[in-house]
Every structure is written in structure tokens, then in C-alpha cells.
Amino acid sequence: MIDAHFHAWELARGDYFWLTPELTPVYRDVKISDWAQIAHQHKITGGILVQAAPTLEETQYLLEQANQNPIVKGVVGWIDMLAPDALIKLKQCAREPLLKGLRPMLQDISDPDWILQDQIQPVLHEMSELGLVLDALIKPQHIQRILKVAKRHPHLSVVIDHAAKPSIDALAFNDWATEMKQLAHETDPQQVMCKMSGIWTEAPAHSDVEIIRPWCESLLDIWTPKRIIWGSDWPVLEMAGDYSTWREFSIALMKAYPSHLKALMLGGNAQKMYRLKL
Q1: Would the pTM of this model clear 0.90, i.e. be above it?
Q2: Which domain does 156 fall in, by range?
Q3: Which of 90, 177, 186, 272 has its CA 20 to 30 A from that of 227?
Q4: CA-closest candidate to residue 231, choices 193, 269, 196
């Protein structure tokens, strides 16, 4: 069983621009061992450590930490895709076996067309050549852009983080679901998958996890168990609730599916998409 999305950070490193003292539940140092202790309680045997800062230094830090913790099966890092030496940096990072993907922080970039720039396309092509996943940290306005990326680079593996971070608002539900259906239907099931993670934190503060049930059920319907990857987004998850509640809620959502399909969502799809060595 794999947790396909968790974080670790040290505040003193100073490159987490978004991590401010106001974010009380997560404004602290977080170690891989902290996550592992919780994960073991749920029989999770591996995880994917995901970047949380747009710096190459953080990627190197995560890889160092991952190499010291065998429970980490892969790292999703970051490089400056617009840098003149982006391809060189990409190839250097890819020499590290634990690097499984890259994640430009698209949700924080003001231009929704950023990922479509001509200068970035050679980087995405090289990622596909190297077998690296594009983790798409997006919001609903980016869904059509990611569809274009997937069609332009048919051999690039793409994982949609946090279900494209939908607004947990009934008025916005249909538009989000329609665009997600288009993305799923117009892409190869082997190329594009979606993480069931990070949705609870999009709900209003102090919301019960049940508020996101329609979005999660829609994800299962749109993407099917063969294209869903489960993750916790811990410790960011703690802005909404605890790990156990999210894990138990997720498994309850999957109870109608046979065991082999549950196994895909809870680990098999992540293992395949990120080429994990377990």
C-alpha cells in the first residue's frame, strides 16, 4: 500500500514562501519519520515524497532525506523549467533513481497558460524520454491547459494532483466535473491519472469530511479505479482533519469495488505510474 503524496520540510531552510505562522497546524518541522509512524498504523508500506518549495535546493534536500529512509519509494521534485540550463539540470536530477517526477507549482503562477510556453516544451519532452511524471498541481482553470499538454506530449505521464483542487461549492461542481470528464475521456488511461488527495482542505474550515463525498464519488466515476491514485497530502491534510479520518473515509468510498480494484487505487496505480521499485 502506497501513500502517493506526502511532504516533509524544515522551516529553517527558508524556501517555503507559502508556509507562514498563520498556518498553525502545519507551521512546524515535519520529518519523514513523523509520516511513517502514522502510515504504519494503516499498513502503508511506502510513500512518494512531494516537493513543497519551488527551488532546486529543496529537491536535493528531499532526495537526500529519501535516500536515508527506505520507506520513501519515490520523490517528486522541482526544477526551473524556464532556466537556460533547464535540460542540463533535468538530466542531472534524473540520475538519482528515486526521482520519479517533477511538479511546477502551477496553482501559484498567475498566468494559467504558463505550462504551454514554447520554451517549456523541450523540458516536457525530455521528461517523457526519461520516464518522469508531470505532477500537475492545478486548479480547475488549468484543466484545459493540461489536456493540451497531454495531447502535445502523448508519451508524457501526467498525474493530476488533488483532483485539480475543486472549489467545494455546489454551484461550481458541474463545471469541474464536466472538464474532468473531458480530460479523462480524451486522454489515454495509461498516460493520465488522478490523485484522490488534497480535496478536504479545499472545503470551508472545520468542515466534516462528508462534505467532499460528492466530489470523491464523482472522481471514482469519472476516472474509474484503474486511474485513481490515493494520497494523503499529509501534513497539509491537517488543515482540514486527521490522517485516520481521511484514510477510513477513502476506503469506505471504495468498499463497493472488488479487492483487485481497491489494490490499484491504494498502491498499484502509483507503483505503475511512478515506476516504483518495491
Answers
A1: yes
A2: 2-273
A3: 90
A4: 196
